[in-house]
């Protein structure tokens, strides 16, 4: 019996030792589990933060594209602005032509006065070549003005290809045309 009792006691001591080892291992496993749970939560938070930042980057890229489109659109001239500018330009050209016409009348008056004064002061032989030189000079100035004046005649084209401030071309034969820009 004593031997059996010693054997039972030894078994109990061994079971207690095993219990303590198991308790220690279980405690370590629980601590590891808690640490891993914290690590997993930290990873999920990082993932959510990265998804938000990625969405912010996509929004930023979209915003940049929209801003670039607005900038490109702002750089373009609207049809109404273009037509208004062309109308103002046409008015300025007409005003310049009226001024030139007024100056032409002034030139004629000066030429008459000069001619009258020269008739009274110069000999007819001297006046002829000088007068001819003045008339040739005046004709060349008038021809230059007529060449530079805008053509207001309409061309009989089947249609035109329109460029902003460039020339027009006939749609059927592609020959260059000189035309005023039509209104709206």
Helices and strands in order, then pairings?
Blueprint: H1 2-75, H2 79-121, H3 124-148, E1 160-161, E2 168-170, E3 176-177
Helix pairs in contact: 2-3
Structure description:
The protein is mainly alpha-helical and 184 residues long. Helix content is 77%, strand content 4%. It has three helices and three strands, in the order H-H-H-E-E-E. The chain has helices spanning 2-75, 79-121, 124-148; strands at 160-161, 168-170, 176-177. Strands 1-2-3 form a three-stranded antiparallel sheet, with no helix packed on it. Helix 2 packs antiparallel against helix 3. It is rod-shaped and about 175 Å long. The mean pLDDT is 78.
The helix fraction, in percent, is: over 70%
- Order of adjacent strands in the largest pleated sheet: 1-2-3
Beta-strand level of the residues, as a percent range? under 5%
Mean pLDDT: 78
Oligomer: single chain
Order of helices and strands: HHHEEE
The chain-level structural class is: mainly alpha
The best one-word shape is: rod-shaped
| Rg (C-alpha, Å) | 50 Å
User: What is the tally of helical segments?
Assistant: 3
**Low-pLDDT runs:** none
Please provide the count of β strands: 3
Strand count, sense and barrel status of the largest sheet are: 3 strands, antiparallel
Query: Roughly how many Å apart are the termini?
Result: 124 Å
């Amino acid at each position: 019996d004593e031997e059996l009792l010693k054997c039972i006691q030894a078994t109990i001591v061994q079971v207690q030792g095993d219990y303590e080892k198991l308790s220690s291992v279980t405690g370590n496993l629980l601590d590891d589990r808690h640490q891993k749970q914290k690590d997993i939560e930290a990873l999920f938070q990082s993932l959510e933060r990265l998804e938000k930042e990625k969405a912010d980057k996509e929004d930023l890229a979209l915003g940049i594209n929209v801003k670039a489109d607005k900038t490109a659109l702002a750089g373009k001239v609207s049809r109404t602005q273009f037509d208004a500018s062309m109308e103002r330009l046409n008015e300025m050209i007409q005003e310049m032509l009226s001024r030139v016409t007024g100056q032409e009348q002034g030139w004629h008056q000066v030429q008459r006065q000069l001619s009258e004064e020269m008739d009274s002061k110069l000999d007819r032989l001297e006046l002829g070549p000088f007068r001819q030189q003045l008339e040739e000079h005046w004709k060349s100035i008038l021809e230059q003005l007529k060449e530079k004046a805008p053509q207001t005649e309409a061309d009989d084209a089947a249609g035109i290809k329109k460029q902003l401030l460039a020339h027009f071309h006939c749609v059927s034969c592609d020959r260059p045309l000189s035309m005023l820009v039509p209104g709206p």
